[in-house]
Amino acid sequence: QQQQQQSLPNGTPQGQRQVPITFPRPVTPVGSRSVELRRGPQGLGLRVATCQENDGREYARVVDMLAGSPAETSGRINPGDFIVSVNGKPTVDLSHEAVIGLLAESPNVKLEVTDVEPSAWAKAAAASAAAAAATTTTTTAAATASGAGAGASSLSADDAEKPRLVTLVRQPNGLLGLGIRSSQGHSVKSVTPGGAAEVAGVQLGERIVSVNDKPVANMPNSELAALLAVGGNVVLKLLPPTPATLAASPAPARRFTATTEISSPPPAITATAAAAAAPAAKDSGDSRVKASPLAKRLAQEANIALSKLTGTGQGGRITVADVEAAKSSPAAAAPAAAAAAPKAAAPAAAAAAQSEGSYVDVPLTNMRKVIAQRLMESKQKIPHYYLSIDVNVDKALTLRQELNALGKGDFKISMNDFVIKASALALKKVPEVNSSWMDTFIRQHRNVDISVAVATDAGLITPIVSSTDRRGLAEISQKVKELADKAKSNKLAPHEFQGGTFTISNLGMFGVKSFSAIINPPQACILAVGKTDKQVVLDSNAPNGVAEINVMNVTLSCDHRVVDGAVGAKWLAAFKGYLENPVTMML
Is 115 one of the catalytic residues? Predict the structure, then answer.
């Protein structure tokens, strides 16, 4: 204990309690990972909570990470991980404020994190030592067995199973939504809902044989993490799970409620500043009672006064067990039931109003989950603005009719094909729009690869017409039809719907006059195309001074981080010029 206390430097943040750690020093539980983070403009981007485990002690856990932050881009931290130490200082039994103080005290932070439950740290350490001791014996026995009989196979039944190949399409934030447990032979320990791994059908406990044809059997955990974090899409070779890998797969991570557990400030804010910014607590007896955050929340939900409880935790602190014991006592049952009655009345009335059979619950497909997640993130994080313009398409309609007549059935060009071609040429003319937001820089693309929104039974997907500016109208028409057929039959290859630079969504054929589309990140713009309507306009050359023209309304949604208003307007002007004078697209 004395040696452990000496390892903590002077200047310990307020609230830190130098309590003996139950696992062996140095602090490296089996399965732990060392992660070095360099603080960025938004801090570390790491949100943490302190929670009490079954052993009655407080542990720091990762709640979530800001998109594009150092914590997320490291690729080595997952929500639900335990933070074992910060810059070599253990976090066990530290208060929430003390953990925030440790994270804020230096520009660069070295974390030790693990997904192993604290109750298994000691057991895992002992098992690891036993496994290391048995390595030599196992190796000798295997060598003897391999030469004992001619023609005898040394492969186990699991090894003889046929592996399967799975392609993980990396998300725009660079993540695969896959957690690996290396202590079980690189097996899948977690799959993020809606992530690339879940969409590809990766199952918990499956064993990874290779990544992009590179075997990983003897690969260190750090090297495997680096291999998964770099590049585009990832092809995994997987073997079915074994009882051991399934047993090692953790239960779903705890969901932390919106209390002080997840309202911690970004690590760039010091503990002192965080305390000053926090709202003042109510002047009540419960605000001065020592209790864990979870115990306070449970007591509030059960209408139990903490001031009337006797804590059994360290220093008289009220624990979850104390609250649960009070809830089961007759004295607490009456007021709790009285408080719960009004709250239960509204859900009961709502349930009665919806008779059985009056609705149908439609399960979410993996594709629908991904669409929902991507669109929500886009609308919440991207500063959209919208520019609309009317385009006279009389000449384009006439040229379309003439070209289709010349084709004699070999092709059938649509107005959407004209829109795609005009958009591609406008992107070459105004290349600032043909860009992507990459968090720390803006990437301006040399190629024009236009994504075309296609509605399928499973949901919306955007296949890509690559090098659109270099294709003719007939070739664009043929390619769009080919990709749409593949999309509707779920036969698109990953490269056919990943990586576009600009998106077009056309609802004109459904009679929609105008609409505003949601940007498909990391792209900077998306064009929403409405139907073509006839309008009467003033025309001095017409016999009656008026003329009837065909007008199409289009709306450009722009990411203001990448495309300023003047640039968006310049692109729309170029697009309108090409579509109103389609012959210029042939030059």
Answer: no
